[in-house]
Amino acid sequence: MDNYVYFGKRSHFSCLANTSSNLQKSDQLTAANFGIVPANFSKATATEEAQGYEIFIHTGEANASTRGTALTALGDAITGVVKAGDAGAKATTVIGDVTRLKFDTVGMASGVLTVDNFSTDGTDGYLIDATDQWIIREKIGSTNDALSDVPAIQQAGCFNMSNFRGCDPVDTATAATIGVGITGIGAYSTGTASAVGGTVSEIDQTKIIFDGGDGGATQDFIILTHTTGKFKDVCAAMESLRNGGNAKFGKGMYTFTDLMSGSLTFFDNELGIIGCHMVNTTL
Q1: Which of 36, 38, 135, 275 is found 20 to 30 A from 107 (Cα to Cα)?
Q2: Is the model's pTM score more than 0.85?
């Protein structure tokens, strides 16, 4: 009997801040690096729930006049701590801060996010430093079916392990494309502003390759985002599944990862999986 493996998508992308006149813009989100290109919207016309993703800034350099008062009032996205002091002190960032951006000053155009500068909006704005990193991830509980709830191509895939062709590590030499992630059950299982207890850490990505659902004329692949140093463990997990070394879970298939369901699988915990998306799936 053939073994089947199921992957559910929860997109995750992080990038190093751009330079020069593009400091307030993220890298472009694409089908290849995020699983889908999110719809355009103008600032102050959208919410996390409606758009289906969350946006964080991981501070790389301490700077004054950086973070708006409304952003500071949310508290650090990891610790939940609200910064003390007067308005000037609260607007100063500290290396390692994780700030959750509000959609009041964030807009999207062709996959590129832009946030208003603090000097333009001292309430919801944020002055991006060249050492900062963007972290963008799908939001659990979103009302945006286009991103999360519809089991369509690029959203989820069930693959016959006889079509498995191997794994490749994604090049992590440039922090602009891989960067960092927010890990920990508190931060990733709920995806709410009040969730605390997670950590910020370096992450890796692995490409899991299958013969295409069109009979092999193309290849389908999964981009798995996980704890750094886990590539060999991903390979071992796929080998075990190929050889039928694990018990099946429901409907005759293995569930490798399904983060948007709000529950973590064995592999999510073992490999520190924080993101997954499909590319070129033809099933």
Answers
A1: 275
A2: yes
